[in-house]
Amino acid sequence: MSDTDEMKMSFTEHLEELRRRLVYCAIAVGLGFLVCYGFSKQLFRLLMSPLIENLPEGSKLIYTALPEMFFTYLKVGILGGILLVSPFLFYQIWKFVAPGLYANEKKYIIPFVVASSGLFIGGAIFGYSVVFPFGFKFFLGFTNEEIQALPSAKQYLSFSVKLLFAFGLVFELPVVTLFLAKMGLVTADAMRRKRKIAIVAIFVGAAIFTPPDVITQLMMAVPLLVLYEVSIYIAKIFGRRKEKEEAEDSAEQPA
Questions:
Q1: For the chain, what is the largest distance between any 2 Cα atoms, rounded to a whole number of angstroms?
Q2: pTM score
Q3: Do 39 and 67 form a contact (C-beta atoms < 8 A)?
């Protein structure tokens, strides 16, 4: 039994707790933004590097509205702030769900924060350093003597942020699987039986979130396939623990 079973929170208390955690997250992102906004030009230059390296010599990004770059740098500052404080954000997520966990499960807070932050940032870095160069090379391959690419800063930021967050979120699959396995909603056997469906879903998702060429789609799909297999192993470990706990509880009950 959870050590909070005797003090169950009401629905209103859950909402109040959610509001408090969201306020903490908003304050953290705001502080991260203040830190990163001062470096927003350097951060955006770094974000542009995979595209600039593939543009024809002398080509540059453009902006077509006077306030466009101002808002672009604001968004870069916010993005940088989110990445900077992501460990704290994952910590707040854990604190919100902690009341529903067993006492022995709450000790996993540090591994959860480290794993979640590492996987999210690792996914974003993988997308930036591996997928971006190939994707942009594909798109710029349509340039010729009659057609010139003139990407705008606003469009590039929107496109790149979507990809970065997509890779960051999909790399959270092992952590999500761990929670679902602990809740008894997912088992290793079920994941094995649904493997073919999962493979199709992974390739469909990769086709949606990446540029329309086979190489970049494979670059997203292959890591996801590996993470899916890792998630099966995670579900197997934590699923067995749950079954063992339930068996022990049944054995303790009088006949």
A1: 84
A2: 0.74
A3: no
